[in-house]
Amino acid sequence: MTAVQAALSGALIGGLYALMAAGLSVTWGTLRVINLAHFGLILVGAYLSYQLTSAWGIDPMLTLLVSAPVLFVVGAALQWAYDRFNIVEFNSLLVSFGLLMIIIEVSTQVWTADFRHIDAGANPYGTSALHLGPIALPVSRLVALGFALLLIGGGHLVLERTFAGRGLRAFAQDRTVAASFGIDHRRLGLVVGGLAGVSAAVAGMVFALGNTIAPAHAYEWFGTVFAVVILGGIGNLLGSLFAGLGVGAFSALVAVLWDPSYEPFVLFLAIILALVLRPQGLFTRRGLA
Amino acid sequence: MLEVRGLDARYGDAQALWDVALDVGAAETVCIVGPNGAGKTTLVQTIAGLHRAAAGTITVEGVDVAALPGHRVCDHGVATVPEGRRVFGHMSVRDNLLLGAYRRPARAVHRETEARVYELFPRLKERATQQAGSLSGGEQQMLALGRALMALPRLLLLDEPSLGLAPVIVDEVFDAIAAVNATGVSVLLVEQDVERALSAASRGYLLIEGRIVASGTTTELRESADVRERVLGM
Ligand SMILES: Nc1ncnc2c1ncn2[C@@H]1O[C@H](COP(=O)(O)OP(=O)(O)O)[C@@H](O)[C@H]1O
Ligand SMILES: [Mg+2]
Fold first, then answer.
1. Per the domain annotation, does A244 fall within a domain?
2. What is the pTM of this model?
3. Whose CA is nearest to atom 3 of ligand 1?
């Protein structure tokens, strides 16, 4: 039973990994920008939710009304800058890593390196759990899964069913031909960068619901979230959802059945094996190149 | 419809087009023939706004589009069937077609246009939900043409539509081009298959090493010593 409990609650954390991975995956897959600053946006999103909840005493989810538009603008501005200076692929990795360090440094100045957490009184999701017989599922993690399903499911539908979504997929596959049909990559890039910012706001808020926040977290997310992006298939939204859930459940199982200290080692060993067997990611890419 | 004057194009230091001038009238089919590496693809890409002109004007229905960004040229009624087809392989056939109707005026009537493309190429309808990458070369060429038609072009640029296709398929593609032209769409056809090109068009230009060296009606071109020697190999 502990294994079932661990797998389920691990998969729910996986919802958070998926939320963190979604924005990174889409900008990488479509705009060819590997935006490490995304982790910084998630951190800022978490701090904004913490700060606004503390200041106004509102429900943490309502803080998205502020943090989502703010990070939309920041995400769009970042993408504008990447595009303006033609920073893609390997260059973007370096530049955005620099930006990430700056964001972390600024966050440390503003919120200090101490652990911060939303007051228990203001956080109705923090400690409660849903009990299904012997299994207890923390509400904050259910919220993570709920938002992941909502955001990724919605994003997937937009990509598959709308003209803008088709334009983006076409652009990812062949920029020149896409342009000949009127696809303006600058404008599309701003929207995608902005929406990635919104996903960072949501991921940050969800993280703040169930965790203490410190600037160094942004580095800790790296490995797992990258693994989710790659396993899901770069640019594949649904893939990052499934990969997130899988990685979450797998890590939790290793921690419970074996030893928590083996978790990163076993996880990355499994990921390397998986990629050797399926270099294109575990989930066949549909739509995005 | 299309008027090109004094057009130069370059790749870095290497010049690919020199002082090119050509015209395509309303509802006319004009071909450009020339050997491999002559600059035919560069010419098509430059007219479509996908390669920046180094000098000269490209006038479409009276508007100079040479300085427009690539994604704006289609707003002037220009659609391209690129060399090698370049369909979006990871997208369904239907999504490829709908992508062609991305811009506003075409988007508003995309259902009607889609129905007409399926009439022209019933095979695309059968394969509508299939990934474009899984189609045969001939079907991909039909898809590339259908995608361009979805944009409601008044000028269609075709870059080597016969490339790599079996003769019966090429017949089918050229029949479709003739049918499209009959609806009043002007066609600029680039081909290495000179016989096909000259039969499909009413006028043509011979492009060699980036320069137009001969032009005239297709009958005149057939007689021209240059064409006979340099591209027909006679
Ligand atoms: N992307 C490119 N970069 C540099 N040179 C190119 C490029 N594309 C074509 N060229 C050169 O431009 C000339 C014309 O090529 P192209 O337009 O493809 O000819 P064609 O379509 O008639 O075969 C050739 O000399 C070719 O090597
Ligand atoms: Mg060519």
1. no
2. 0.91
3. B11
